[in-house]
Amino acid sequence: MALSDQQNHDQPLKIIEIAEEEKDGKTVHELKLNEENLKKIMLHPDVANNAVMIVAIAGALRKGKSFLLDFFIKYLEAQMSANWLGDDDEIKGFQWRNGTAIVTYGIQIWSKPFIFENKDGKKVAVLLMDTQGIFDCRSTKQDGANIFTLSCLISSVQIYNLMHQLQADDLENLEFFTEFVKTVKRCSDITADGRSRIMLLIRDWGCPEEFSYGDEGGSRYVDMQLEIEENQPEQQKKIRRTLKEGVLDLTGYLLPYPGKAVATEKLYRCLVKDVDKDFLHFVKILVSNIFSKKNMATKQMNGADVRGKEMVDYIEKFVSVLNDGKCPSLETTVEVIAEKGRQLGITEALALYNSQMQQCLDKSEVSMKKLEEYHQKFKKHAFDSMEKYPRIIVAEHEVECFINLGNKIDDAYKSYQSQTTEAKEKIRKEKRIEFVKTYIVPISIAGSAIIFNYFPVIACTTATIGVFSWGISKYF
Ligand SMILES: Nc1nc2c(ncn2[C@@H]2O[C@H](COP(=O)(O)OP(=O)(O)OP(=O)(O)O)[C@@H](O)[C@H]2O)c(=O)[nH]1
Ligand SMILES: [Mg+2]
Q1: Do both 243 and 367 map to the same domain?
Q2: Which ranges carry the GB1/RHD3-type G domain (predicted)?
Q3: Which ligand lies nearest the alpha carbon of 260?
Q4: Tens digit of pLDDT for each residue in 247-264?
Q5: Which of 66, 101, 398, 430 could covalently link to 96 via disulfide, CB atoms 3.0 to 4.6 Å apart?
Q6: How far, in Å, is the centroid of ligand 2 from the Cα of 235?
């Protein structure tokens, strides 16, 4: 058994758990977000402003998911060097164990991000994510579906971990996600969102003569499974047709049996040398394939890379959508992404307006008239930027979205107005008038009263005020 490392600081952090809640006298299961852990990971200085690539593993319980992820940690820790795996290395990280008792609960992410450059030289924060086994008898079918869907929605690479072979209902689990990706594409003209990678990973593959271990045999096997046959039920034919449309980047990988020591013995510590050589060989090919520069796919939503700080929001919203309905509708899920796209577009357009206004104000003193001209010009730039911002466009929210941006720009404009020379002069003038009203006028009244010995005070006061008012207006 390899428990999470006590000495090492890095550890799996639970971001989601399945909580039981009492609602209207009924016990319901809900995804519960651990915001503190999520922010710890996504707002880490190396993650917050970098594009994120989450590599996730999901599938039935007790099938070696966490065990496999621990090889990924090792590979990434070694900076993908050629000699990343030594015989005496221990396989540890995400907790794994022999036996029937479930080990992983909820969704966990390895606390340490791994930073690499993709083929375009862009920094990518790679995160590893482990999930609770689906189809576990304690949780409901809905819990499993929620975990699987959330994992698909936020990961760039989803490894669907299967034992021995691919079965009909395994494909059904992919249907929602496929339909979701199709809806996103239908709702927007986004072409930049790369196809989501789903790898069907078959463990303990038993027919290497027919389909060889690794990716070549795996992809042939998946293609064969997607073939539509006359005698299949209509539902199965439909799923296969959808999956064959190529919306997802669906690949296969076949892994050999890891050996008796790993699979059956009650190990409390597992070293690399305890694992079958064949298994290790194909794990090495697997990791170099998943993390190759060419395959280093960042998560894209609304046509742009999702950075850590945005991922927090997406995850929060997806969780509430999943908790809201019995089954998330495609439209609601797409709307959540679209809403975030609008928010990001507005933030960027407003930042553009502010930077252009500030540049002009920094250069020289600006009159109110000139400022108004700048405002109109840069407001238009901001609107153009919003129009071009890559995002899912939902027609009914467009007008409201531009009004919102316009209001924010107008508010900013008010604060710029107060920075002009004219505005400053106006403020000075108002202060002087205030001074006259507070001190000069009462003193004059008192003076008049003394000079004319209270005779007729009212008349003199009125005259004095008149004279002073005239003087003030002349002077200022
Ligand atoms: N047969 C077989 N056993 C494996 C394989 N990989 C790991 N195991 C063993 O399977 C057992 C469960 O491993 P875990 O990694 O804890 O499995 P898991 O899917 O994460 O389990 P849960 O988190 O409880 O759903 C351990 O004894 C592992 O050594 C494999 O490829 N084949
Ligand atoms: Mg596990």
Answers
A1: no
A2: 49-295
A3: 1
A4: 778 899 999 999 988 888
A5: 66
A6: 31
Indicate which residue's Cα is closest to atom 25 of ligand 1: 61
Same structural domain, 150 and 166: yes
Domain check: are 59 and 191 in the same one?
A: yes
- Model confidence pLDDT, tens digit, residues 178-209: 776 666 655 554 444 455 788 999 999 999 99
First-to-last alpha carbon distance for the chain, in angstroms, is 86
Q: Ligand 1 centre from 258 Cα, in Å?
A: 10
Tokens 């975030």 appear where?
A: 340
Domain extent for 459 = 425-475
Mutate which of 63, 132, 282 for ligand 1 pocket (most atoms within 8 A of beta carbon): 63
Same structural domain, 311 and 350: no
Which ligand is the nearest neighbour of the Cα of 97? 1
State CA 212 to chain mean position distance. Answer: 37
Q: Has residue 347 been placed in a domain?
A: yes
User: What average pLDDT score do residues 277-282 get?
Assistant: 97
103 close to ligand 1 (CB < 6 Angstrom): yes
Q: What's 227's DSSP letter? A: -
Does the beta carbon of 204 sit less than 6 angstroms from any atom of ligand 1?
A: yes
Q: What is the pTM of this model?
A: 0.75
Query: What's the burial of 36, exposed, middle or buried (CB within 10 Å: 0-12/13-18/19+)?
Result: exposed
Are β-strands 123-131 and 157-163 bridged in parallel, bridged antiparallel, or unpaired? unpaired
Atom of ligand 1 nearest to the CA of 255: 31
Confirm or reject: Cβ of 61 under 6 Å from ligand 1. Answer: yes
Q: What is the predicted pLDDT for the residue at 333?
A: 67
Q: Which ligand has the shortest distance to the CA of 278?
A: 1
Could you give the CA distance from residue 352 to residue 384 in angstroms, rounded to a whole number? 11
